[in-house]
Amino acid sequence: MSSPHASPHASPRPGAPSVRRSVPPGLLFALPFLILFAMFLLWPLGQGLWMSLTDTSLSVHDPAFIGVDNFTEALQDTEMWRSLGHTVWFTLISTVPLVGVALGLALLVHTGLPGQWVWRLAFFAPYLLPVGVVSLLWLWLYQPDLGLYNHLLGSLGLDQVGWLSDESVAMWAIALTTLWWTVGFNFLLYLAALQSIPDHLYEASAIDGAGAWRRLWSITLPQLSRITVVITVLQILASLKVFDQVYLLTKGGPNGSTRPVVEYIYDVGFTGYRLGYASAISYVFFTLVLVASATQYAALRRREK
Amino acid sequence: MTSTDLPVRTAPTPQTLPPIRELRVRRAARRGQTNLTLGNSRLTRVLALAALTVMAVVWLLPMAWALLTAFKSEADASSPTHWFWPQGGFTLDGFRTVWERGDLPLWMLNSLFISTAVTVITVLVSAMAGYAFSRTRFAGRRWLFLLTVAAVLVPPQILIVPWFRQMLTLNLLDTYAAVILPQTVAPVMVFILKKHFDSLPHELEEAARIDGAGHWRIFWSVLLPLSRPMLAAVAIFVFIGAWNNFLWPFVSTSDPTLMTLPVGITSVKDAYGIQYAQTMASAVLAALPLVVVFMFFQRHIVKSVATTGLGGQ
């Protein structure tokens, strides 16, 4: 990159006003990022918008401009609405436990009970597993006849569950896998926040004779309210983007009952070859993400006031 | 969980503690804050420990089950009656078969190479941009930074289709470049590093500037060495993200010799058929690298997630 060459020329006389040159050094520093940014974010973003207005396909070579036809089709596409519904439903049933369980685990670990290393490893290690590993593992755990969970249910005298084959269970099973896999991330964020609560708050209340229960309600939880909002916002945005584990565990099945919108984009674009239509659905999904972000931002602003 | 704390309200705090118990409480207090958050009641502490143990067992069970299966013979792994303890004892056959297929080590190397390249490029490029936005002035700087911050909102999932189209046009599909390049754009890291540079004092670089150092010298020899913990945090975060990334590597590679670990091991899922011991052996081997690294660098990784995970909020 050209930036190393900038150094001999930069401010030849200390304290002198910056010398006029064709390219300011600051721009040179930002340039490598800006080039990648333009090539792999801004351009594709524009390209996607353009493609959504055409009938671009993987099989036909000359795409034609078709105006907003893709969008009118998308708005009448029940399968798209269904997949959007799955995404929103997954976001709901995954965010609540991913925030709640993370908080519970962090509160328990933060008490300073012995075995800190073990607890952190147990709850955080799954987060380090690639999704491929997570899905192979849980396909095996959920296996109907030989999987661990049905064996355990069997030894308790309970009926077997079609974890991934029963339409009414599959999404919950995926949410459970997601909880196991990613709760460690929120758990660590909560732990860090707990460690930053000053001791003197607890000491003062201990002198006042407040019990542990009381301290939890009147010191710990209020001190965690800001980080809880932040973690919830990040979690909602992450859950809306769900694809990997659903695709690998159920391929969106049974009968498309777990297919999230990102998988619908993938299916339309790469299985159905309709890149133009897939781009239009991408933009519908983008709108959903933006609306969610804006709502959360507004809520955050109101809270801070 | 919270109900376990209830008895504390009624449990009276002992006025005089026996010396041994007092010592134990003090030791616990030094380890963490047991008596600050839980109080001095032994019952609460036992209940909290019990709750924690149950949760840890539930969380570790899937991994223990995978390990157990991986060391079984195929016959034992799919035995409907003796489903827990293997009748024929433990064996390394699953691991041997998987390793000898040869694709797993190759995918590990691919993942290592791709994640390292993504990390090096992302950290260097983002740090330079962070420096430019924090320490230099040029026309359009404010505007470009705003654009970068706004881009944090763009989900990479919506770029999959245009990226694919782009790589098709550039004739880069099924190359390392196609997998790596789109992953190196990390506006949030630029934002984090810009804010980090903003927080560093200006005195040191003033001194360096008086000594005649240019921007590159100040960036490379003054600010970067001061930023080592932050750079490590960002690097760890980017590396884990790239190591575990699935969707784009999955879409951009169809050649098995270029696949990353997460994509590769799921691509042969059906090829293994119902060979559960082999499947679990491959999962264990694939999981090993990052879990081992975590054991050695736990402190750094925990810090990285805590500082970078919030995206600078």
How does the overall form of chain A come out from the CA principal axes?
A: globular
> The CATH topology of chain A, please?
MetI-like fold
- Portion in helices of chain A: 55-70%
Give the number of domains of chain B. Answer: 2
- Poorly predicted spans of chain B: 1-19, 25-32
Largest interface: A-B, 112 and 116 residues
Overall mean pLDDT score of chain A? 85
- The percentage of residues in β strands of chain A lies in under 5%
**Biggest sheet record of chain A:** none
Which superfamily, in CATH terms, is the homologous superfamily of chain A? MetI-like
Distance between the termini of chain A: 46 Å
The quaternary structure here is heterodimer
Rg of chain B from C-alpha positions?
26 Å
| Tally of DSSP β-strands of chain A | 0
Q: Briefly note the structural class of the backbone of chain B.
A: mainly alpha
User: How many strands of chain B?
Assistant: 0
Class derived from helix and strand content of chain A: mainly alpha
Describe the structure.
The complex is a heterodimer of chains A (305) and B (313). Chain A is 69% helix and 0% strand. Chain A contains 14 helices and no strands. In chain A, helix 4 (78-110) packs antiparallel against helix 11 and helix 6 packs parallel to helix 12 (244-250). The model of chain A is unreliable at 1-19 (pLDDT under 50). Chain B is mainly alpha-helical and 313 residues long. Chain B has 2 domains: 2-24 and 37-97, no CATH class; 101-308, MetI-like fold. Chain B has 19 helices and no strands. In chain B, helix 14 crosses helix 19 (298-308). Chain B is globular. The model of chain B is unreliable at 1-19 and 25-32 (pLDDT under 50). At the A-B interface, helix 1, helix 2, helix 4, helix 5 and helix 6 of A face helix 2, helix 3, helix 4, helix 7 and helix 8 of B.
